[in-house]
């Protein structure tokens, strides 16, 4: 056995050895700041407020493909048409009886788009248990955000851009000028 080492000698040598060590290896995992957390808002109306708009609820109950088509056109920002999505909804309902699986995805998309509280499981359960109430709530949500789903994407955006908050004007008959005559 050798002579005991002086502890001070070890401490003095340690800093010089640490400085000569290579830096730790790069792992490839970047260190970034955590993403911003956005506040999620509740739906502007309750699910059971569907009876406050009996007309829309009846349309959603008896012919949900109409309401769904109108909602999907707005949620897709005009990329798909009301008629096409309504027809797809109808075919899925007719062939499988489970069109709620299709409309559920649009509820998810709408919630993400407008940062609305909820969960995928809850959305699916709502569409499976009460499709008409879910569609009516989504329709009202779009109305409360300034869209008129019954008009379609282009007309709704045009009205928002013009700031129109009045009823549509009746069509005006064309003016016929005197010109060529037989």
Automatic annotation (TrEMBL):
Q: Where is this region: Disordered?
A: 1-26
Which residue spans traverse the membrane?
87-105
Where are stretches of biased composition, namely Basic and acidic residues?
1-13
* Keyword annotations of the record: Membrane, Transmembrane, Transmembrane helix
- Going by the entry's taxonomy, the superkingdom of the source organism is recorded as Eukaryota
Q: Name one Pfam family in it.
A: PLAC8
Matching entries from NCBIfam families are given as:
A_thal_Cys_rich
PANTHER family listed in its UniProt record: DUF614 FAMILY PROTEIN-RELATED (PTHR15907)
What's this protein's name? Protein PLANT CADMIUM RESISTANCE 2-like isoform X2
Q: Which gene encodes it?
A: LOC115757107
